[in-house]
């Protein structure tokens, strides 16, 4: 029997299909490679906002949609399956909005939640630095106290879409602390604040997604401090549950996977027993990953921060995606791995999937350390 929640999710999925139709009618592309990481289209985000699908899992009294995280997962699954260009609002919707809700002041909630929900504020993530990627406790961007706020100086790197975002999230050091994990603070800033300089870092095929962000005495007012001064480590770790535990960790290559399965089924591409067995195995793994994601979304609905489970989903999800790309290469006899083709772009992008959002080795350490704590 279909529950009310399941019926609502079916309806949300069809809303996504309607939006996809509207987007195609405007000449917009679908079936994109890495649609959530490199499909920055504010106009598409506006279509989503008009249907209330950004900030949909935030409480109504803060202007959110009042849906559950499971409802949001139904929507994100559909967006990713269709390969729709969701990058512009993705980070703000997935983690900055929830981080503001968990730790932010009423001022931040009032200022940013409506702007994110209406697709007017787009965030990029200023966490990594040249000496602090996996090891975020090593962040050395420094904030010095002054009247009414902080002066921030340092260098952030790999800041995806900083050149298109309206705002940047910053993890900075506000005090020494007695351990490396103390003295970190989260802040927000407009990207065009005085003292911020964004420089492009080109990818292997010449695309511009990454940036270096130089911060030279940038003034961040007290109102833009996110949460407690000095409590940035605990807050950022919780934020990573939102960053790592979603369907984007295993559906990035779904449109291309589906296209190959369809062309094998229709006989357009010749099949072999090995390929059929491989597709069977990958499909079963996909079902397991979905199960994990639905379980995680339920935990977010219960206001938990499932740090370890999200790390596990990301670890298994990016391994799955690498194996999907290997399947696609073998079906194509390795031929189509040229820059500019969807498979070529995917083959170039896939090594980064296990690094962005936390490298696999580091995720294994997080999971293993938790086991040791429980014994
Ligand atoms: C596509 C993409 C987009 C990104 N976007 C952003 C962004 O928008 N904002 C942002 O802030 N950052 C971003 N990053 C940066 C990303 O978060 C870091 O690259 C990542 O955390 C790894 O850090 P690092 O590059 O400093 O590598 P390092 O920390 O130097 O790690 C290198 C390798 O060493 C190993 N290693 C490191 N530490 C350990 C350990 N403790 N135990 C075991 N092995 C270890 C791992 O295998 C790792 O792959 C992005 C990265 C990619 C690839």
Structural write-up:
This protein has 375 residues and is α+β, with helices and mostly antiparallel strands. The chain contains 12 helices and 8 strands. The strands form 2 sheets. Strands 1-4-5-8 form a 4-stranded mixed sheet. It has a 4-stranded antiparallel sheet with strand order 2-3-7-6, with no helix packed on it. A hairpin with a 5-residue loop joins strand 6 (196-202) and strand 7. It is globular and about 70 Å long. The model has no long low-confidence stretch (mean pLDDT 93). Flavin-adenine dinucleotide is lined by residues 124-128, 133-135, 158-160, 352, 355-356, 358-359, 361-362, 365.
What topology emerges from the helices and strands here?
Blueprint: H1 4-25, H2 35-38, H3 42-50, H4 69-81, H5 87-103, H6 106-117, E1 123-126, E2 142-146, E3 149-157, E4 167-173, E5 184-190, E6 196-202, E7 208-221, E8 225-226, H7 232-244, H8 254-265, H9 273-301, H10 307-331, H11 342-353, H12 360-374
Parallel strand pairs: 1-4
Antiparallel strand pairs: 2-3, 3-7, 4-5, 5-8, 6-7
Bound molecules: flavin-adenine dinucleotide.
Q: For the residues shown, what is the average pLDDT?
A: 93
Into which percent range does the helicity of residues fall? 40-55%
Strand percentage, roughly?
5-15%
Within the largest sheet, what's the order of strands?
A: 1-4-5-8
Q: What is the tally of helical segments? A: 12
Number of beta strands: 8
Q: Uncertain regions: pLDDT < 50 for 5+ in a row?
A: none
Decide which structural class fits the backbone.
alpha+beta
Major β-sheet profile: 4 strands, mixed
Order of helices and strands: HHHHHHEEEEEEEEHHHHHH
Query: Could you tell me how far the N terminus lies from the C terminus, measured between alpha carbons in angstroms?
Result: 41 Å
Bound molecules: flavin-adenine dinucleotide
* Alpha-carbon Rg, integer: 21 Å
Q: Shape from CA axes?
A: globular
């Amino acid at each position: 029997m279909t529950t009310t929640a399941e019926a609502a999710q079916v309806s949300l999925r069809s809303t996504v299909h309607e939006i996809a139709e509207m987007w195609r009618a405007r000449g917009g592309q679908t079936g994109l490679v890495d649609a959530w990481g490199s499909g920055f289209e504010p106009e598409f985000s506006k279509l989503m906002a008009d249907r209330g699908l950004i900030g949909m899992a935030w409480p109504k009294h803060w202007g959110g949609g009042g849906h559950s995280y499971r409802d949001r997962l139904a929507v994100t699954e559909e967006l990713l399956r269709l390969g729709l260009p969701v990058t512009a609002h993705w980070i703000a919707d997935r983690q900055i909005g929830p981080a503001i809700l968990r730790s932010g002041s009423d001022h931040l909630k009032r200022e940013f939640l409506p702007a994110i929900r209406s697709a007017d504020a787009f965030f990029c993530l200023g966490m990594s630095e040249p000496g602090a990627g996996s090891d975020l406790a090593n962040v050395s961007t420094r904030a010095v106290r002054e009247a009414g706020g902080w002066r921030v100086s340092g260098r952030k790197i790999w800041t995806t879409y900083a050149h298109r975002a309206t705002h940047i999230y910053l993890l900075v050091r506000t005090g020494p602390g007695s351990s490396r994990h103390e003295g970190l603070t989260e802040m927000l800033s407009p990207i065009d604040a005085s003292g911020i300089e964004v420089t492009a870092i080109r990818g292997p095929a010449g695309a511009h997604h990454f940036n270096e962000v130089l911060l030279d005495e940038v003034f961040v007012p007290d109102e833009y401090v996110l949460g407690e001064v000095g409590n940035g480590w605990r807050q950022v770790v919780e934020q990573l549950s939102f960053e790592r535990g979603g369907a984007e960790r295993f559906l990035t290559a779904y449109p291309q996977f589906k296209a190959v399965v369809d062309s094998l089924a229709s006989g357009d591409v010749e099949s072999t027993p090995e390929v059929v067995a491989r597709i069977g195995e990958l499909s079963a793994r996909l079902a397991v990953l979905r199960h994990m994601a639905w379980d995680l979304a339920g935990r977010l609905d219960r206001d938990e921060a499932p740090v370890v489970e999200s790390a596990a989903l990301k670890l298994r999800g990016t391994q799955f995606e690498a194996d999907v790309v290997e399947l696609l290469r073998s079906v194509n006899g390795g031929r189509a791995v040229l820059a500019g083709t969807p498979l070529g772009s995917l083959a170039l992008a896939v090594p980064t999937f296990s690094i962005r959002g936390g490298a696999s080795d580091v995720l294994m350490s997080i999971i293993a350390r938790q086991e040791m704590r429980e014994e």
